[in-house]
């Protein structure tokens, strides 16, 4: 049964299950049996076989335990999955019930909405009727109304010349003694004296605001001379606001009272100033994203910024911004008009009605028309413009009140812009502001006459005789309006009831929705918890699977090594048998020779031959002894090989068991599992090299970082991130967002793509040489992704692509020393003179003509330049002169055609030519063109500049030819032939791969040097580990950048692979250093704990066993790290063994009997960290006990000496172990507890001795488990039976 239970059942291809250890062992025994009988040297092999069998059984038991853990994990996973399914069913059922209830509520809500809509439809005609009646009432009073307001007198202005007989009459004392009645009366619609405030004034203005909200255009003007109170009437003050704020607040309040969920009001504001007939928009300096509106007639209109306002605060903010934009020039204010227009938009969802109206509030310029001699020309111009606009306004108002057919709106910009608010169904209110002092009498009379002219022409309410008639009409209209309003109020009450019912339904829906949300949250939380647990189990299962796979692979390697060793042993055994046969034959020959010697001794005559035979036998004996020695040497080698094989098997087994038992421990790193056999062989080779006496100082991590940074051109450190700039962010977004599908034609796509490439070049040029690398690095990924995306469409200008590629390659060259040593062939290798016998057609048929030239490892083709001298004849010159054609012009035309042909041939020659791309990259453009010109001058003598030809056409021809060749090559190098990219792109990919390979190799060399260094102590181990981790981090960073570099061409794109050197040996050394670091830390902790005068037997035994466990973990280290670990463990063992030991109880009593002063002084300062526990005993105040551990690993507590004492009476005591209370009576226990804090004794004492011991054991365990450093001690005490409970 045991054999069947330990049988392996892994299903690995090419690996059969192990039948039994006995099936392999007898073969070895049969082969080695003769050697045991003859030489007695194979006992080690037998012992090694037993060890191997034992290690395999232990490995099988470990694997069985792993399988049991996997089985338990699977069962837990199935239980969790079933629980998740049950919870899902429960949540689905509850959601179905909630959904049905929500459906019922939705039906009720729909019915309430339908009733509300029907009610709204019934109210809408009544509201419209109300608006009509109200408009008729205002129209009956007059579409143009004039109010007059007199400001209070100032202290130095003298007596008032204005009187107020009634609410509609103002009387002015003209102070003219020549007439009988110097007082003159003026009648207006309403008169406001100096005592009238802003609120009373607005009460008469409010009907106009209501009319504007009803959908009619309304304009309110403030007219009067300077300092008459116009601006105060419109703006007001902080404590008494003017018409601006009051009108908008009234609009806002009326809109809120009239709005329902089926109708909505929106408001926006425009503010502008009219100065010298010029418009100045005071909101244009705000955000540019605001909407604009056109004002004025179709022939003359202006576009103004309108800002949406949702509340009075927004309106005040807009006005404040407009006033700030207007400035502080008061002289300009007096001669300019300020127009504030509130635009009102109304929309009704039921009737689909859309209304637009506006309320214009105009603060007119001062009506001072007197021009003095001291006024400047600019002042005179301003006054003339003001007089003109005010006169035009008076003409318009007079024409409207007189009901003339033609209204002169176009006479002024003011009347033109406000034409839709003057006349027709609109309402106009003129508020006249007058000064009551005698100094301004003329201006006051002028203003009164101006407004009287506008009002007296009114036909409706101009005479007192008809006022009674119109009052009766108004009373009738008010009665009808009151009845309508009462009916509307009843309907509104009904709507409010429906709204309240709807609100209650909505509240129920909200409550139900909140419950649904809570249910969803609970369900989601449970699902997320189950999902996370499922993921954890899957990860654990995956890790165990990987561990099992690694174990299988390593066991397979182990068995393969054993098979190879067996084959070697069989070969050596066959050799030994052959040698044994030779020895037997030689012994038989020796015996024969001895017999023949004895026989021949009888005959003296045969002495010669006998003597000769004896040396021969002796020589044979000497040969046999040498053979025997060789045989023994071979056997010793075989035994040594077997021993080393078993040692390697033991190391492998220890690593596997340690990894299986300590999964996730930082002491064993993952690189150790990447082929144990290879790493061990490398380790043995490295140890042989180290044993030869090679030693170097440990290289710190800072030095490694400096070395590696010397050649890393493409990789930057974490803190050296690419800086972002506005230009870079804009270009990156533009390149990434470019979508060819948005364009109608290829020409449009080409235009957009080329513009983006030109923007890239312009940004690099503008950045300058100092920031060129930064901008290129910032947009690198976007540029190459864009080129890769657009290459198949063939719409980009290839010369632009070439210029962009060259910028990036040269930037890479400037930052990569390994690329700066590349040599390229001169330009003469790429140019070739065509055969003179070849015609143009043949050269074009074979274009471009190429001849092979070797360059490095690839074939360089020469570009054939086909140029022939022009043949001049007298006849052609005469013909051209007769036709009137200039010879130079004719030559230029021919040369132009030839230049285009050469440029096309050069482009075809350059496509895919990486050698030519390298020449362009490593040679400046000006130098390259100069070399081409020199070659052309040397190859074509008829183009050379000699004598006085310098001013002729040969120099121009050289320049044009070299430019054509350069342009053709540049265009060809940027042209791609899908699926391959352009030549410059291939060159950039090759250079980048070369830089990456160089960096990886450099880091490999540094890591190789570090991995061969031997560490002497923990400090050097930490430095070596840090250095290797730093190098490994840089290597991983380079590999990550390689994977994300869009400029690299993969193997699928035609690129070559990057050489990535293996770092298995360095990874193995890093894993070994990590394990060694953990061992040294534990040794250091043991040494720290042993810095006492005496130790208890249990503590000393535990420390020595810990050192033994650390020594057993040494096989997991590499050979190079064994001396350091061995030295530290031996030193620690020597220190622990040198400390005297005491009996446990005696040790506890000695420490317990120390004086309280000693305990308080030593333990408190020795405790590194206090942990607080609170014990609730049912009383008002709980017990607070602080616990910790001193350097002797003893439990130390700090608490109040007496429970009833206030804070501040804390004492520190060492708590004795529970073994101190054995065989003590209850009184003796109380004496022991007397030295401890009262809270501890109250918690520990019971009625009996056994109960007290049990309570104290539990209390000691609770306190000790709170201290992390004492948890191991608790485990040891539990194993020893010291912490026992009477209940058990």
Note the topology.
Layout: H1 2-5, H2 21-38, H3 43-141, E1 144-150, E2 162-166, E3 169-173, E4 183-187, E5 190-192, H4 198-213, E6 218-224, H5 230-235, H6 243-258, E7 263-275, E8 278-281, E9 292-296, E10 301-305, E11 307-309, H7 312-326, H8 330-333, E12 336-348, E13 354-363, H9 377-401, H10 413-417, E14 427-434, H11 441-456, H12 467-600, H13 607-661, H14 676-690, H15 701-709, H16 726-737, H17 746-778, H18 780-790, H19 798-815, H20 817-820, E15 831-833, H21 840-845, E16 852-855, E17 858-861, E18 863-865, H22 874-883, H23 887-910, H24 914-922, H25 925-939, H26 954-973, H27 983-1011, H28 1018-1044, H29 1064-1089, E19 1095-1096, H30 1097-1112, H31 1122-1137, E20 1141-1142, H32 1144-1152, H33 1156-1166, E21 1171-1175, E22 1183-1189, E23 1195-1200, E24 1210-1214, H34 1226-1234, H35 1238-1244, H36 1249-1265, H37 1271-1279
Helix pairs in contact: 2-3, 3-12, 3-13, 4-6, 9-11, 12-13, 15-28, 16-17, 16-18, 17-18, 17-19, 19-26, 19-27, 23-26, 25-26, 27-28, 27-29, 28-29, 29-30, 29-31, 30-31
């Amino acid at each position: 049964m045991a054999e069947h239970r330990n049988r392996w059942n892994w299903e690995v291809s090419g690996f059969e299950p192990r039948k039994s250890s006995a099936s392999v062992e007898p073969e070895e025994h049969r082969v080695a049996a003769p050697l045991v009988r003859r030489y007695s040297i194979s006992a080690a092999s037998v012992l090694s076989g037993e060890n191997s069998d034992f290690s395999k059984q232990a490995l099988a038991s470990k694997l069985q335990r792993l399988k049991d853990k996997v089985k338990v994990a699977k069962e837990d996973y199935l239980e969790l999955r079933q629980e998740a399914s049950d919870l899902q069913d429960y949540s689905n059922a509850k959601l179905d019930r909630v959904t049905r209830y929500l459906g019922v509520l939705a039906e009720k809500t729909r019915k309430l909405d339908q009733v509300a809509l029907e009610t709204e439809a019934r109210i809408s005609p009544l509201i419209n009727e109300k608006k009509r009646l109200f408009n008729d009432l205002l129209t009956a009073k007059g579409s143009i109304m004039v109010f007059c307001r007199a400001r209070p007198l100032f202290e130095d202005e003298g007596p008032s010349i204005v009187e107020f007989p009634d609410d509609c009459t103002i009387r002015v004392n003209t102070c003219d003694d020549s007439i009988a009645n110097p007082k003159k009366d003026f009648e207006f619609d309403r008169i406001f004296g100096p005592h009238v405030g802003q609120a009373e004034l607005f009460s008469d203005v409010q009907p106009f605001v209501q009319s504007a909200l009803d959908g009619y255009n309304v304009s309110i003007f403030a007219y009067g001379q300077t300092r008459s109170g116009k601006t105060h009437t419109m703006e007001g003050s902080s404590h008494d606001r003017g018409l601006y704020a009051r009108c908008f607040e009234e609009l806002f309040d009326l809109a809120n009272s009239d709005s329902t969920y089926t109708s909505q009001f929106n408001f926006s504001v425009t503010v502008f100033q009219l100065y010298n007939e010029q418009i100045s928009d005071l909101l244009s300096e705000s955000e540019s994203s605001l909407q604009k509106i056109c004002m004025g007639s179709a022939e003359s209109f202006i576009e103004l910024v309108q800002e949406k306002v949702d509340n009075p605060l927004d309106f005040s903010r807009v006005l404040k911004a407009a006033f700030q934009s207007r400035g502080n020039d008061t002289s300009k204010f007096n001669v300019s008009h300020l127009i504030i227009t509130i635009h009102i938009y109304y929309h009704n969802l039921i009737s689909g009605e859309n209304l637009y109206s506006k309320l214009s509030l105009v603060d007119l310029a001062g009506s001072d028309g007197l021009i003095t001699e001291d006024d400047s020309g600019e002042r005179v111009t301003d006054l003339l413009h003001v007089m003109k606009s005010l006169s035009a306004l008076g003409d318009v108002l007079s024409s409207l009140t007189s009901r003339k057919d033609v209204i002169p709106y176009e006479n002024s910009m003011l009347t033109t812009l406000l034409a839709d608010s003057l006349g027709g169904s609109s309402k106009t209110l003129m508020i006249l502001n007058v000064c009551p002092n005698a100094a301004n009498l003329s201006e006051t009379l002028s203003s009164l006459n101006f407004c009287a002219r506008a009002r007296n022409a009114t036909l409706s309410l101009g005479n007192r005789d008809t006022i009674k008639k119109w009052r009766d009409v108004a009373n009738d209209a008010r009665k009808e309006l009151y009845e309508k309003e009462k009916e509307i109020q009843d309907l509104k009450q009904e709507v409010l009831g429906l709204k309240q019912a709807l609100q209650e339904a909505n509240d129920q829906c909200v409550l139900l929705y909140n419950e649904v949300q809570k249910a969803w949250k609970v369900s989601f939380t449970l699902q997320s918890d189950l999902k996370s647990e499922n993921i954890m189990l899957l990860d654990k299962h995956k890790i165990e699977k990987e561990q099992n796979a690694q174990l299988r692979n390593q066991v397979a390697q182990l068995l393969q090594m054993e098979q190879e060793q067996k084959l070697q042993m069989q070969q050596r055994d066959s050799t030994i048998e052959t040698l044994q046969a030779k020895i037997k034959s030689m012994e038989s020959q020796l015996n024969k020779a001895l017999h023949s010697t004895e026989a021949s001794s009888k005959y003296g005559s045969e002495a010669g031959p006998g003597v000769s035979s004896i040396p021969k036998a002796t020589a044979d004996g000497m040969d046999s002894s040498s053979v025997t020695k060789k045989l023994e040497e071979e056997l010793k080698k075989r035994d040594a090989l077997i021993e080393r094989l078993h040692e390697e098997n033991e190391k492998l087994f220890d690593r596997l068991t340690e990894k299986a038992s300590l999964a996730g421990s930082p002491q064993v790193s993952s690189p150790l599992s990447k082929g144990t056999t290879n790493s061990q062989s490398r380790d043995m080779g490295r140890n042989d090299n180290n044993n030869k006496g090679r030693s170097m100082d440990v290289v710190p991590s800072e030095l490694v970082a400096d070395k590696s940074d010397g050649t890393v051109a493409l990789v930057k450190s974490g803190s050296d991130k690419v800086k972002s700039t506005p230009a870079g962010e804009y270009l990156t977004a533009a390149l990434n967002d470019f979508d060819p599908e948005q364009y109608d034609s290829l020409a449009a796509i080409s235009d957009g793509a080329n513009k983006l490439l030109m923007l890239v070049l312009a940004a690099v040029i503008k950045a300058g040489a100092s920031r060129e690398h930064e901008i290129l690095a910032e947009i690198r990924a976007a540029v190459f992704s864009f080129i890769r995306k657009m290459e198949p469409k063939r719409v980009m200008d290839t010369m632009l692509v070439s210029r962009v590629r060259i910028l990036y390659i040269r930037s890479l060259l400037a930052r990569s020393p390994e690329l700066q040593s590349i040599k390229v062939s001169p330009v003469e290798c790429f140019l070739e003179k065509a055969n003179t016998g070849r015609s143009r057609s043949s050269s074009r048929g074979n274009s471009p003509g190429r001849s092979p030239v070797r360059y490095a490892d690839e074939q360089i083709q020469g570009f054939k330049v086909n140029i022939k001298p022009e043949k001049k004849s007298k006849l052609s010159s005469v013909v051209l002169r007769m036709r009137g054609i200039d010879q130079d012009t004719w030559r230029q035309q021919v040369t132009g055609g030839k230049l285009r042909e050469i440029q096309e041939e050069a482009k075809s020659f350059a496509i895919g030519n990486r050698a030519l791309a390298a020449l362009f990259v490593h040679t400046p453009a000006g130098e390259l063109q100069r070399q081409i010109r020199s070659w052309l001058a040397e190859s074509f003598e008829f183009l050379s500049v000699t004598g006085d030809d310098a001013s002729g056409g040969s120099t121009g021809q050289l320049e044009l030819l070299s430019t054509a060749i350069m342009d053709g090559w540049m265009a060809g190098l940027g042209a791609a032939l899908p699926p391959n990219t352009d030549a410059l792109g291939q060159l950039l990919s090759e250079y980048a791969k070369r830089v990456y390979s160089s960096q990886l190799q450099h880091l490999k060399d540094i890591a190789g040097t570090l991995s061969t260094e031997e560490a002497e102590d923990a400090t050097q181990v930490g430095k070596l580990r840090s250095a290797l981790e730093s190098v490994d981090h840089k290597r991983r960073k380079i590999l990550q950048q390689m994977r994300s570099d869009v400029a690299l061409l993969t193997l699928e794109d035609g690129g070559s692979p990057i050489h990535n050197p293996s770092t298995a040996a360095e990874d193995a050394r890093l894993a070994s250093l990590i394990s060694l670091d953990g061992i040294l830390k534990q040794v250091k902790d043991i040494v720290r704990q042993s810095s006492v005068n005496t130790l208890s037997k249990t503590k000393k035994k535990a420390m020595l066993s810990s050192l033994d466990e650390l020594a057993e973990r040494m096989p997991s280290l590499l050979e190079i790290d064994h001396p350091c670990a061995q030295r530290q463990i031996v030193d620690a063992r020597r220190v622990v063994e040198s400390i005297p030991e005491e009996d446990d109880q005696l040790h506890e009593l000695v420490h317990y009997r120390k004086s309280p002063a000693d305990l308080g002084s030593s333990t408190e300062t020795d405790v590194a960290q206090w942990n607080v526990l609170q014990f609730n005993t049912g009383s008002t105040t709980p017990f607070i006990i602080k616990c910790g551990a001193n350097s002797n690993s003893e439990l130390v507590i700090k608490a109040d000496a007496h429970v009833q004492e206030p804070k501040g009476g804390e004492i520190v005591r060492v708590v004795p172990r529970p073994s101190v209370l054995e065989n003590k009576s209850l009184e003796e226990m109380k004496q022991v507890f007397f030295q401890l804090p009262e809270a501890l004794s109250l918690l520990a004492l019971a009625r009996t001795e056994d109960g007290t011991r049990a309570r104290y054991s539990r209390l000691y365990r609770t306190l000790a488990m709170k201290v992390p450093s004492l948890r191991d001690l608790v485990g040891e005490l539990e194993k020893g039976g010291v912490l026992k409970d009477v209940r058990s």
